[in-house]
Amino acid sequence: MTVVLRSPQEFHAWRKQQKGSVGFVPTMGALHSGHEELLKQARKNNDVVVLSIFVNPTQFNDTNDLDKYPKTWEQDLAMAEANNVDAIFCPRYDDMYPDNYRYKVSENSYSNLLDGAHRPGHFDGVLSVVMKLFNIVAPTHAYFGEKDFQQMTLIQGMVESFFMDLQIVPVATVREEDGLAKSSRNVRLTSAERLKAPAIYKAISESKTAEEAAEKLNAQGFIVDYVTDVGTRRFVAARLGDVRLIDNVQI
To answer: Which of 58, 81, 206, 213 is most enclosed, with most CB atoms within 10 A?
Structure first.
């Protein structure tokens, strides 16, 4: 039976009763099979599994995007129970930000590239809420998908920089059969956009250069924020209609 805990105080009381390793999967809900893979990895390798569901306002630079973020509580609860999650932490904004976001965590280098360059303040919000969640949950392992590779890298750096006592575990991107990276935002695509969306993965995988990939996507009607090679990975963010999709591949 999965227990649902709503406040940090409620969670702390429950956490004190737990023994052994704790695997943690932080999410904003609207769970899909990509999240399920994170939960499976956590369940396989830990004594206790915690899932958090919190749509974090401070990481949305576009209030319309926040308003449209899908909420699927009953489906999320069913997935948690099917994967033997021990607890869901589902706080309110006032519980997570009693200071109304006066204090925040910032990174001033890598966070300014890629998504950070197009979404001002986004990674401040991500790092701030993740640190809060780590402090509340006190996990031994936390699981993140490689689809959000920049986010995962920044969180890993935060953990190292602040001497936090947990291990970040990367999990490979889960894809649809046609190559589209699983994302909670995919449900907002129209049927025509959904048919076109796999071109993102195809372009970044098959093109010799980032410039070539961007040209292919522009030609197919995507609005490209960026296609950029950083180190050994190629990153993309592109819009179909009002849905912004990201992906990355090893090159």
So the answer is: 213
Q: Residues 24, 100: one domain?
A: yes
Whether 80 is covered by a domain: the verdict is: yes
Domain enclosing residue 18, as ranges: 3-171
**Do 214 and 156 lie in a common domain?**
no
Pair 17, 129 in one domain: yes
User: Average pLDDT, stretch 171-198?
Assistant: 97
* Domain co-membership, 201 together with 104: no
Which of 171, 192, 213 is the C-terminal boundary of a domain?
A: 171
Average pLDDT, the chain: 97
- Residues annotated as part of the active site: 35
pTM score > 0.85 for this model? yes
Torsion 143-82-72-11 (CA) sign: negative
How confident is the model over 133-162, as a mean pLDDT?
98
User: What's the N-to-C CA distance of the chain in angstroms?
Assistant: 43
Sheet of 223-230: strand order equals: 223-230, 233-240, 243-250
Q: What pLDDT, in 10s, does the model give residues 72-106?
A: 999 999 999 999 999 999 999 999 999 999 999 99
Closest CA to 16 of 87, 85, 82, 83: 87
